[in-house]
Amino acid sequence: MLNIAVCVSGGGTNLQAIIDRIADGTLENVKIAGVISNNKNAYALERAAKADIPAFCVSPKDFETREAFHDALAAQLDALHPDLIVLAGFLVAVPAQIIRAYPGRIINIHPSLIPSFCGVGYYGLKVHEKALERGVKVTGATVHVVDEGMDSGPILLQKAVEVREGDTPEILQRRVMEQAEWELLPRAIGMFANKKED
Ligand code: GRF
What we know:
This protein has a single domain, classed as Rossmann fold, CATH 3.40.50.170. Helices cover 38% and strands 22% of the residues. It contains 6 helices and 7 strands, in the order E-H-E-H-E-H-E-H-E-H-E-E-H. It has a 7-stranded mixed beta sheet with strand order 3-2-1-4-5-6-7, sandwiched between helices. The longest helix has 27 residues, at 169-195. The N and C termini lie close together (6 Å). 5-O-phosphono-beta-D-ribofuranosylamine (GRF) binds next to helix 1 and helix 6.
């Protein structure tokens, strides 16, 4: 059984895709040990609660220093004993102390075809705004291993999505989620589950 911890910040549609694939049997031998958000208002926490998954908020607002927040986030992750940490719309830069504690065992979903439209400042809707500004005809999503850079770790899976005439950032974001993110992230988790023996 692959024990995963899912880190979220917003709506949690990627978390929901993982929950749904486990429920429909597409994603086997995976258990979501817990969901952690930096944002107490994240709807993703409601999604976890509805699925009876332990949900925790570790907010930087509750700590005097960034280091104290990082230590609390690390402690909460460690308490779940994850084999794999999944960043699903998580807007916090994962500190090096956590990346070093879980080498090759943290993955992230990014809403573009890396190396396009990624790095500092490229997250959420902004990624799609830049893709439309540039006039690309194809965009998509990427699942990659998290290293100490920003969106710079080894790429695991990618899927292309067409950009259509008249797309707004919101329309394009939704298409990339529906056609790429919600398929790729469960598939990437399955790659780790298949590698794990017991
Ligand atoms: C989306 O923009 C997604 O592309 C990115 O994080 C944002 C929120 O996703 N990964 P979610 O609905 O919270 O999963």
